[in-house]
């Protein structure tokens, strides 16, 4: 019988220490000077964007080969750089630019094919592979301050904070992966004490994630997020009203003709975080609809394969349901489910604060961007509040017992600035 804890995580580009984040620090600059042309533009991206000179720079860029990329880390770095340049090129114009320069489109598609990921701005491009590890801080790196972001659209600490908060959440989750694998084995072996210890670790992990999510406002204002950064995170799918009715054209040759493809992609989103989807899979929560599944196509190929493997292996929920008389395990499982519900509840409030409130104010858009004409849509393209409420409610309904009217945040007794104070009667009703 396969023991899941014996899986070689490396086969899935995963680490027992950092999860879906790379264990070794990402390449901060492609070492071969041949790629200086890309790197120099990326380094100057904030200035080229504010001075509106990015277009000319990229349209006169020669087409470089990907043949001189060596390690996996170099391919990832190339992907990050080209994703930022493509997003900058498209959205640093009003209306947005509908055709990518060949010198971006061709290598971006090559590196994306190599990494089995979509050729656009993704969670991997902005977060997973766009981080620097401070050499003074060893593993585990779990706080936003333990990371820096490498590429940025603006010269602002606020943009960096937006990325590193997600990265820290991902890092905290990563450490749970070996325990998740052990829990699958523990269920096979009917070892309830190991199952309980996994569920306790899960609860503690999600508590930490909520506290970190709640730190977004330490260094990120809603005006900056909504008006300065978010326009560059947009996708090209269902964006007719924002000026991209057919998506974006990726030319295949320098002839300037019609050879190439129109491609439409969802924008970057944390829905593309493999760890968050993994939590649902391990807990046996089935999110409805195609969006979450489609987001797997925006993850790096090996991570997507790992999720598929875990989907086939997920056994915790039927096991807990079968333990009809083991109230200890059942309540602990429910506590874990309610923590995940609380995470999604806090996230809903983040979305209200960073999108709904600024969208409601009639502020002039800085930088002359075309306003998003559908303020209710996320960069991923969802009808966001409806979608996010559904994922939260589906999570909560996975509880074994019924908690009538209980507020998941209170049930989870989280100290959360957005969601209110810690209740006095912690989890007494569970
Ligand atoms: C300013 C910060 C953030 C905003 C405005 C925001 C907004 C959104 C929106 C609008 C969606 C809907 C999908 C789409 O159409 O794009 C979404 C999805 C999602 N976001 Fe965020 N998000 C933020 C930060 C985060 C962070 C730090 C996390 C990390 C836990 C996160 C986790 C998720 C998840 C997991 C989903 C998928 C839905 C689900 O699984 O429930 N978001 N986000
Ligand atoms: N879906 C979000 C954006 C978002 O969540 C996101 C976009 C790019 C990289 C990371 C993201 N998520 C959280 O850090 C929005 O609609 O603004």
Automatic annotation (TrEMBL):
<comment type="function">
    <text>Produces N-formyl-kynurenine through the oxidation of tryptophan.</text>
</comment>
<keyword id="KW-0479">Metal-binding</keyword>
<dbReference type="Pfam" id="PF01231">
    <property type="entry name" value="IDO"/>
</dbReference>
<keyword id="KW-0349">Heme</keyword>
<keyword id="KW-0223">Dioxygenase</keyword>
<dbReference type="GO" id="GO:0005737">
    <property type="term" value="C:cytoplasm"/>
</dbReference>
<dbReference type="InterPro" id="IPR037217">
    <property type="entry name" value="Trp/Indoleamine_2_3_dOase-like"/>
</dbReference>
<keyword id="KW-0408">Iron</keyword>
<dbReference type="GO" id="GO:0020037">
    <property type="term" value="F:heme binding"/>
</dbReference>
<dbReference type="InterPro" id="IPR000898">
    <property type="entry name" value="Indolamine_dOase"/>
</dbReference>
<dbReference type="GO" id="GO:0019441">
    <property type="term" value="P:L-tryptophan catabolic process to kynurenine"/>
</dbReference>
<feature type="binding site" description="proximal binding residue">
    <location>
        <position position="347"/>
    </location>
    <ligand>
        <name>heme b</name>
    </ligand>
</feature>
<dbReference type="GO" id="GO:0046872">
    <property type="term" value="F:metal ion binding"/>
</dbReference>
<dbReference type="GO" id="GO:0033754">
    <property type="term" value="F:indoleamine 2,3-dioxygenase activity"/>
</dbReference>
<keyword id="KW-0560">Oxidoreductase</keyword>
<protein>
    <recommendedName>
        <fullName>Indoleamine 2,3-dioxygenase</fullName>
        <ecNumber>1.13.11.52</ecNumber>
    </recommendedName>
</protein>
<dbReference type="GO" id="GO:0034354">
    <property type="term" value="P:'de novo' NAD+ biosynthetic process from L-tryptophan"/>
</dbReference>
<comment type="similarity">
    <text>Belongs to the indoleamine 2,3-dioxygenase family.</text>
</comment>
